[in-house]
Structure formats: structure tokens, C-alpha cells
Amino acid sequence: MDQHLDSIVSTQNALLLMQKFDSLGISELAVTDKYQRIIAHYSRDLDTVARIYQKNKTDPPIGRDLPPISGIISLPSTDPVVVVVCPIYLLKERMKLVGEN
Question: How much is the pTM?
Fold first, then answer.
């Protein structure tokens, strides 16, 4: 489990992996510490998204096949939304499960 968490690619995938390990119910896994590492990674993800937004908000990158105005109006890729929103939903599910126990 530690090997997988050491090479976290996305917070969402790490949370899904932790849910699988958490469902095993093995107390020796120390999942609370692992969740803290994932939340620290999520914080770095949020900082990265904020930095990219600040850099591109006045002069956003425009696709090669789009006219200038349409390119500015078009929505950016959904990647920032996935980085920000999906882990929050997964953590909410986790908190609901902890509250039931």
C-alpha cells in the first residue's frame, strides 16, 4: 500500500485505492496516516490549479483551431474540475462511513 501511495499520480485515484484498503477492515494498515498524506497531496494540487488559473486568467491559451474570441470564451479542459471537486466527494463519502461506525 505504501508503494502505491508514494507514487500518487492523482488524489482521486489515491482516495479510491484507500477506500479499497479501508473496506478490508485491517487495523494494522494505519489508514488515518495515509489519508493525511493524501490530503497534503490534495493541498498541493489545489495550489497548482490556483497558480495555473492566476497565470492564465488574463491571457488564456487558445486552441490552434479556434478564433480568438471563441477560444477565450470556450471552457478549459475539465481537468481542474476533476482535481478540485472529485476528491471532495470521495472524502465526504469517507466521513459518512466513519460516522456510521
Answer: 0.68
